[in-house]
């Protein structure tokens, strides 16, 4: 895999879901029933009116993740060795926080795009560990089989 192909994977893994989520507020909005959207808006308003300590902590960690995200993307696009550890760490924390955010309403195309983004993200995280070529982009040494 070439460096530019890996970079495109990074860009697409963020770009496809982001554009689709923007689409949920614009041209995909008609795909979600109005009653369901209204119920979701009421639920969010109730949570924001009286948040629990768990919600406040998860929001604080989410803000920290969002602030670290540009550094992660920069590191992956520039093949910095620290970027892989940061990406794995942020991924674990992000997935651990998901249950605390409760229900969410998305259109079918957005759910599909988010699933595609997750698959691409998995490829981004896995490739440096299974492909010697991609591993070399990050300046990582090949694993020594005699040490296992």
Give me a quick take on this structure.
The protein is an all-alpha fold and 148 residues long.
Distance between the termini: 27 Å
Strand portion: under 5%
Count of extended strands: 0
**Nearest-integer average pLDDT:** 88
- Please identify the oligomeric state: single chain
Name the poorly predicted regions: none
Question: Could you name the key traits of this structure?
Answer:
74% helix, 0% strand, globular, 148 residues, mainly alpha
Task: Draw up the topology in text.
Layout: H1 3-24, H2 34-49, H3 53-77, H4 81-97, H5 108-130, H6 132-137
Helix pairs in contact: 1-5, 3-4
What can you tell me about this protein's structure?
With 148 residues, this protein is mainly α. The protein has one domain. Helix content is 74%, strand content 0%. The mean pLDDT is 88. The chain is built from six helices and no strands. The longest helix is centred in the middle third of the chain and has 25 residues, at 53-77.
